[in-house]
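Lab notebook, bench 4. We co-purified these components, and the gel suggests they stay together. Before we commit to crystallization screens, I want a quick structural picture of the whole thing.
Request: model the full complex, all chains together.
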Amino acid sequence: METVINTPKDIRKMFDNTMSMRKRWTAAVRQNATREEMEKMGIKQIAIVK
Amino acid sequence: MDLISLSAVNAKSPYKIDSDQSGSFFFVTDKHRPYHVAFIEDPLFYEHGIYQYCLDTDIHAEADGHVYEVVVALMEEFFKSSAKGLLYVCDSMDGRQAARNRLFNRWYNSYADRNKYLLLQREIPYEGVLQYVSLIVRKDHPEVQLITEAFDRVLSNLEYAYK
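Here is the predicted assembly.
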């Protein structure tokens, strides 16, 4: 279940993704993106049920 | 699938919470300040079930004390889902990440049920800017040890990688 990260380059790349994820989400939500558009950008949100 | 019930959140929240077309949570405060909140799956240190907490608002609008209650309502329902942990990286776009970290800690320390959770925190010197990274996980989660060990190992490696 755990993510295996072997090199400093790998781990920096993973943290780059973490750091860019919120920026991408913020830009997308301000542009009224749809959930499908978010997912195409690699942003997978927790599901919401009514 | 990890999911949150809107009706359960609304039963606790001082503001009416809805979902927007992006699949994020949305609410407006009494001061007409709009907020979007999301939980985004983030595989930084664990393959599945860890979500990054994201919040967006109009920073020029007046602040509102009830927002804390909304955040608590959302987080309590988040931890009732099958999600495994919540990752929070303080927004550093405007250089106010240290102030956000202090506010986060103040809110967390005032939360009555905080003893049900573990809070792990690290400071990562990322591209010349100190980033405040927090993980919240339920103490009674069956994978709590694996999750916290993975967080410690990966964040320690990150600290080393950016030195």
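The longest strand of chain B covers residues 117-126. Worth comparing against the SEC data before the next meeting. The helical segments of chain B are 6-10, 67-78, 97-110, 144-161.
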